[in-house]
Amino acid sequence: MKKELFEFQHVFKFIGGHKALRNLSLRLYQNELTFLVERSGSGRSVLTRVMMGELTPDSGTMKLLEEPYQPLSPEQAHERGIFCVTQDTTLIQNLSISENIYISKPLSPVWLRGQSKAFVQMICRECGIQMDLLQRTTQVPLIDTLLVYCLRALLTRARLLILDNLLYLLSEEDIGLLFQKLRLLKKRGVGILIIEAGARYALRYGDRTLFFSRGRISADFMRGECSAEQANLLLNREQPVPADGFREGSEPVLTRDFFYPARSGIGRLSLAPGEVVCASCRSSKQYQWYLDFFFRTEQLLSMNRQRGQSRVTVLTFKKLQSAYFLDLSFAENVVLPAYARISSKGRLTPNLAKKFLKSELSDVISIPSDQWGRRLSRFSDTEREQAVLYRMLMEDVDILVFAGIMDQPNLSFMGDIWKVISRASELGKIVLMFHRNYGWPLQRRDRLLFLDDLEEPCV
Fold it and tell me: What is the sign of the dihedral through the CA atoms of 287, 293, 296 and 301?
């Protein structure tokens, strides 16, 4: 079983009002060589700077070996065993290669420094690295600089080594040599993260490949699960991509399953991230059964939760008209599901809620921002319902279900509903609309299906 090394949990980082990291969650493991493949401008530099303590996340947490990790500088990151090599990284030129290798060790008595030199020589022999350790580093080629950092990682018992956008500067021969040495680091328990703009070397050398787009992980592959053509598709497409990726020689895998009661016991719908699906029943009796005894009970949530496939949230008329808190502000009502992500100190102030809401949904919410801080008790019933509706976008779930909401449509409320559905789709969430009036609006959904055509439910 792989041992977790480093973890991002729901990390947000804003740079000049731009969301450089958007609810980023990822895990890195010991003894694993991971590639992070990204297009230019997708947030790579912000990611590495956050990991190295040059930037502090606006919300979310980081863990190193399951313990909190909050470095305030690269020096503190080094102390915890995380090193990053970039194009600007250079060796200290007035020192020898040997001194550059063990300089990151804590200062030790003179008699121990001799042991450090001997240890460097031993490591070089074990790794098959042939360098003049006494050479001054005035004009050392890049491959030697990278090898020095590999040796330094071994000497200092580094936990994670990051190589940021460097491979294109090396020859094919040097790249082969580098990965030989990185495999030795893996065997010694070091995690390796290589960040590149293309997937060429990831497919050849990586144990795992993550595709990074718009500040978050968009796809995750293990070795052999992705071809060059599929990687190129992922790097060039603009829409959210399936989290579980592709299998060689096949169409994209639909990665989310929605379970529901059926004649055989359990029915299943395969849904793609970002898809908007309209579901209904031809039989009025079966439609009413789903609405009354499935979508309005815990049965739906438990059925999907037990199978570990999808996280689901449901919005019904009853929830829309009652699931708000009159003593809280409009902003606090909306951002409640994101409480843990944005309130690192354990409390959610009205100002913090308004700030977060403005950064996330200012272009969606129809209520003026100067009213977000007012208590919900001062709003009309329709505006209270809007707070519950917008809250759907804050839910950390895969599938949003609108059950019966459109059967008695309030036309003035329809604009807000479609804004929420459109934004959810843009975020890669699946929207399942269950209502009787399935004939409208035809242009705003990807699929129409009837549950009683698939399998008869168990009434």
Answer: negative
